[in-house]
Structure formats: C-alpha cells, structure tokens
Amino acid sequence: MSIAIVTDSTAYLPAAELDAHAIQVVPLHVIVGGTEFSEGVDITTAEVAAALRAFKPVSTSRPSPQSFLDAYEKAAASGADGIVSVHISADMSSTIESAHLAAQRSPVPVTVVDSRSLGMAMGFAVLSAAELAEQGGSLEDVAAQASSRAEASTVVFYVDTLEHLRRGGRIGSASAFLGSALAIKPILGLVDGQIRPLEKVRTSSRALARLEELAMSAVDKAGSAVDIAVHHLDSQSRADSLAARLADRLDGLPDGGAVRVVELGAVVGAHVGPGTIAVAVCPRPNP
Question: What Gene Ontology molecular function terms does this protein carry (predicted)?
Fold first, then answer.
C-alpha cells in the first residue's frame, strides 16, 4: 500500500520537511478582532503576538470537515491507498472531530490519530510516520508509529502569564496557580493531552533553568537518542540560549540527539501568549 500522511498546522513542521515527505497540512484558524485567518497561510506569529500585547480579542477555531476531505481526496488522487491523519490533542481542540467526519467520506481508508500532544511533539511523530510509510509500512503500522512516538514525548513549558490560557479555556487544573499568578512564573506540562501544573518559581530565569533540568530528566528516562524542539513565542534570544545549553548537554551523552528552535504558530500562540518558552523531548523510535 501507498500511505499518505496528513496533519494540521499545530505540528509546526518546516515547509522543507513537509515537502520532502509529501505531508499535507490542514490549517486551523485564528480570529483577530473579528477577522478570521488560516494559520500559516495569511497571518504571522508576530501579528498574533502584537494583537495579544495590544489586548485585541484573539480566538481560534478548528478546520471544517470539508478541509480535511479535500486533503484526503488530494492524497487519493495522487495514488495513496490509505491515509494516516495525525492531529492536535482532542482535549485541546475539536480539530480531530472534523478529521473523523471527513474520514467517513474519504475515497480511501483513513486512520485518524489523536496525538494527545501538539507542536513538535506531534511534529516528530508525524515525521516518523512519514518515514515508515516511505519504507512500505502498513496503514496500521504507520498509525501506531505516530501514536507511540507522540505518547513517548515530554512537553514542558513556561508562560509569562496564565491569562491567555484562562481566556481560551485551556487552563484545566493549572487554574490552581491563578490565585498567585502575579507572584509566580508557572511551569506547566502536557500530560495525557491536557495542560497540568508542575511547579511554581519566582523568576523567568529560574523558570528557564527548570525547563532545562526537566528536559534533561526526560532525556535520561528515554534511554535512547532524542529529538528536542525548543518552542517560543516572540522570545527568540531566550529560546536560542536554552537550545544551545541543551545541545551542549546532549553532546556529552552516549546516545545524544538533536536540538532545534521552532517558533510557535498563531493558534497555540494565541492561547499561551508572548514570552512563552516550551521544550518537547521526543525519543527516537527503535530502528
């Protein structure tokens, strides 16, 4: 079988990698001041960050089922016998509901995978699925590859303020931090597809140091080579500095790995706000 891969725009994969593996991306939507935009198409992360700083109303919405059906039909027309469609956690977005609805009308079989994650934790899983598909993997094996790599990933992050998460309704049990939000810098994690509170620290420098230690703890637990992505929103220099420190520490390990810096896109950025730094640690699958 020829298996095609579809994902959504919150994977934040570079265009070159999408093109290299013929991965189709269905964009989520961002609404700024009443005007709707497609993530990665007609709005930039910088524009969303500026809107948030200016206290303009910013919200997000899922793609339509038709958008997914268009992608599935395109894959089938290009010769795909089956499709693996990998998406943002169902607890963070209803995107996957649109994918399921479209899958029912697809001209070829579609397996929809809830990554229970987002960003490059999902992106690395998508890449592994695409690589296995290119090696002739079955629909079931390719879907399992995506699911297992996403599940093995660790995501920790720091936000300058919890206000954007609160407004978007994505805060979950991290709302326990709200009472002292002005006095702390919260460290949060993505656990089983939901945002959970991890720690409270007093300064942004301490928060970044804790992200580094939590990331390296995840590397130690992996027991194999890892891929790491340092995400940020409007905080390039801090992200670069953290990535450099992590890369230095990986160089001293037998298995090692790779670190990249990836800016968060408009959709996730709308919920976490400017100044956010996140780290995704993704163990590589066994050869």
Answer: lipid binding
